User: Which sequence fits this backbone?
């Protein structure tokens, strides 16, 4: 059975406390349980106070067979920012919007360049999703068609080759598929529609409940995991976004990414976002999965 732990963002001490509370015991430099394993939802780096120690612990558990993990958008950003092509140019330009989120990670690894390079190589081996038959994990959104697209471009490889990363940056089909699997689905507004949040800030795009049919919903009701409130206006049918309803009898799927600081984490009997915004709340959450097809609030563990 599995314990799914949400986004950690360098909060090593909270992670150790969580593992201890779940019954995992020290084993060398990592932790293990006699009967259970951890699944991490990605986003180990950036923002927190002990990023290197967090990565070492998670990597150690994965390599010892005591944990599995999926790739988060923060790890993907680090891969693209640190990987060079044959001409010595970084695959992703070092623009502020890409580099600023990485600043704390880069600072921690400043005196450990070889360790940083090895960490990036390890990130490239992490799966984009886990489908364990009766349990699924992905960082942002589950979509069978997107998974098929990613598999096609990976061409049987088990790690993110440079050719795949280049294709991601240049091919719209792959870019859309990978972005939505890792970052969730966002609604993009047309240029002639001006939408302001409750603070009067103009919003051109926002994350949505990708598993729900958007018809007859308001912007506020369809919004999900945004750090601002959208107005309760009905969405015009002409601009309804494309969503991917998740069948009620599909295997439970666990998400990270959305930085939720509210109590409700199970949004459908088989969909749970386990990311409780550790940076803002200093709370880490796990779900103790024991094989159930319908998820239970009582199986959520918070510290």
Assistant:
């Amino acid at each position: 059975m599995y314990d799914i732990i949400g986004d950690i963002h360098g909060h090593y001490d909270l992670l150790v406390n969580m593992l201890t509370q779940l019954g995992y015991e020290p084993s060398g430099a990592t932790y293990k349980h006699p009967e259970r394993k951890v699944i991490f939802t990605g986003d180990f780096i950036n923002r927190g106070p002990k990023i290197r120690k967090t990565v070492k612990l998670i990597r150690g558990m994965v390599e010892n067979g005591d944990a599995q993990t999926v790739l988060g958008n923060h790890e993907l950003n680090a891969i693209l920012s640190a990987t060079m092509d044959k001409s010595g140019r970084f695959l992703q330009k070092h623009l502020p919007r890409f580099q600023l989120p990485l600043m704390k990670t880069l600072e921690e690894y400043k005196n450990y360049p070889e360790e940083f390079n090895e960490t990036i190589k390890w990130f490239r081996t992490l799966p984009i999703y886990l489908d364990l038959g009766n349990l699924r994990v992905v960082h942002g959104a589950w979509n069978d068609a997107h998974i098929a697209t990613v598999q096609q471009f990976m061409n049987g490889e088990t790690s993110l080759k440079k050719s795949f990363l280049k294709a991601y940056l240049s091919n719209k089909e792959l870019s859309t598929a990978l972005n939505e699997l890792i970052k969730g689905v966002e609604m993009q507004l047309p240029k002639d529609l001006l939408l302001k949040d409750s603070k009067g800030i103009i919003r051109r795009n926002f994350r949505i409940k990708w598993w729900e049919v958007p018809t007859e919903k308001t912007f506020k009701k369809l919004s999900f995991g945004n750090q601002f409130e959208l107005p309760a206006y009905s969405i015009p049918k002409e601009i309804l976004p494309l969503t991917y309803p998740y069948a009620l009898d599909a295997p439970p799927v666990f998400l990270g990414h959305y930085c939720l600081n509210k109590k409700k984490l199970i949004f459908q009997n088989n969909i749970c976002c386990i990311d409780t915004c550790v940076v803002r709340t200093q709370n880490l959450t796990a779900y103790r999965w024991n094989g159930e097809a319908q998820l239970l609030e009582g199986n959520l563990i918070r510290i």
User: Anything to note?
Assistant: The chain has a mean pLDDT of 95. The longest helix spans residues 51-63. The chain is about 30% helix and 15% strand.
